[in-house]
Amino acid sequence: MRFSSLTSDRRASSFTDEKSKDAGAEHIDQLEVTRTESAAAAAAPIDEEAWRARERRIVRKLDMTLLPTVWTLYLFNYLDRNNIAQARLNSFEEDLSLTGNDFSVAVSILSVGYVLMQIPSNMILTKVRPSLYMPFWVCVWSCISAATAGTTSFGGLVAVRFCLGVAEAPFFPGAFYMLSCWYTKKELALRTAILYSGLVLATAFSGLLAAGIFAGLDGSMGLAGWQWLFIIEGAASFLMGLIAVFILPDFPSSTTGSGTWLFNAAERQLAIERIERDRVSDKESDHSIWYGLKLAAKDYRVWVFSIMLSANHSAYGFNNFYPSIVRGFNLGSNTITLVCTAPPYLIGALITFAMAYNSDRTNERGWHIIASMSVAIAGFVISLATLNVPARYFASFLYIAGCFTGNSLVFAWGASTTSQTPEKRACATAIINVLGQAGNIWSPYFFSAGEEPRYVKAMLLMIAFSVLSIACCALMKVVLVRANKRIKASFEGTGRTPQLYTL
């Protein structure tokens, strides 16, 4: 079987014409050069092995630039969002006079701002340069997060946390959309797990960072340890946002961003074609962003994945309270408590990488998610069944690894299933993530101050939502099996092999 890296002069010309509309008249000369180079390369067809070799070269370049950049930014994204959990172990609540459910409100209000911004942001992202748009928001949220150090009341804290949610909202769905524009389905689960590991490692290292800051800077220059925590982490993410401008590529068809020096014209065309080949064989041709939103809203699978992700996030509701859970084990000082929060997240990240790698190799998602959430349920059950500290600490390894793995695979599965056009993928990704945030809005209220450290009500609710996630997953497998049968039937007698949904 023979492949061509560049299908024809006409294909290259079409690509150039489309780019010129997006990039503007100032790029016409450069695009004419691209057209000439692409047409010349098209004359030399290559076999399948050569095609794969060139694909691997593109993937290696992405793995050395795009992936580590968005991973680092996501790590800071979650550091700046989650440091409130560590601040609670310092004088945070006392300094701001927080009482009752005030802390839970401060945690959940961020998700409200997060929800409001995601869909419009992803719609905008398809029409702008991601290498400028995403770093801009990184710098904005960094300043807002650092400003938390200046709050003196519950009202000020809520206002800052809401604005932080708005500023952080564009990043994760935008980063995942960028990955899905460059990586194929068989490559995406592992890269999504790596991206998600930024969340887990941020949670792990935030405890270690907080332990060091609280021990060394608490009271320095008249500032409490929690204030230094927000200032230092905000400044670090701002610096990374500036660096990202020079490393992030734009879209495969773009002639801007780091793609101009990462890839030549032939490689950019190959990057476009391999994503086109990878789409399920029921794709649409209308590339209007509003039509993409309409397609996403009408696709019931988007809503099933939204419920699944919301259930997963609800089961992951322990995250902002995990330092408080570990404090209930009475292991020693706050420093020891914060250090002990790290190992479960580090082990969880390793397990997730292994599961995602296997998911990509086997081209299977559903059973991997079901197995992960079943492990999480086992952890919650152990936490309910005993007061033995070693057993409950071991249980936390199970539910952290299970929920984290389930979250990363659900998002990868949902995006690849709803990608008939790039515009629909952008909107569907945002909708799934937005509705999934419902779990982050209500889950902080699972944890009542009077129930620390066992949190019986919270554990029961997180078991229930884990079961809901498994049920949605099983339903989606049935739906996609039937869809694949219909696609196969439509291709019978054509001599062509269709691209099917990942199960």
TrEMBL record:
User: What Pfam family is a match for this entry?
Assistant: MFS_1
How does the UniProt record describe the way this protein sits in the membrane? Multi-pass membrane protein
- Region Disordered: start and end of each range? 1-28
Q: Where in the cell is it found?
A: Membrane
Q: Where is the composition biased (Basic and acidic residues)?
A: 8-28
Highest taxon of the source?
A: Eukaryota
GO molecular function terms attached to this record: transmembrane transporter activity
Alphabetized, the UniProt keywords read: Membrane, Transmembrane, Transmembrane helix, Transport
Task: Provide a GO CC annotation, any one.
Answer: membrane
Which SUPFAM superfamilies does UniProt cross-reference here? MFS general substrate transporter (SSF103473)
The primary site where this protein sits is membrane
Membrane-spanning intervals of the chain: 62-79, 103-120, 132-152, 158-182, 194-214, 226-248, 300-316, 336-357, 369-387, 393-414, 426-447, 459-480
Q: Does the keyword DNA-binding apply?
A: no
Q: Which Gene3D superfamilies does the record associate with it?
A: MFS general substrate transporter like domains (1.20.1250.20)
What the entry lists under InterPro entries is as follows: MFS (IPR011701), MFS_dom (IPR020846), MFS_trans_sf (IPR036259)
Tell me the ranges covered by the Major facilitator superfamily (MFS) profile domain, including all copies: 66-484
- Stated name of the protein: Major facilitator superfamily (MFS) profile domain-containing protein
The organism named in the record is Cladosporium halotolerans
Q: What is the lineage of its organism?
A: Eukaryota, Fungi, Dikarya, Ascomycota, Pezizomycotina
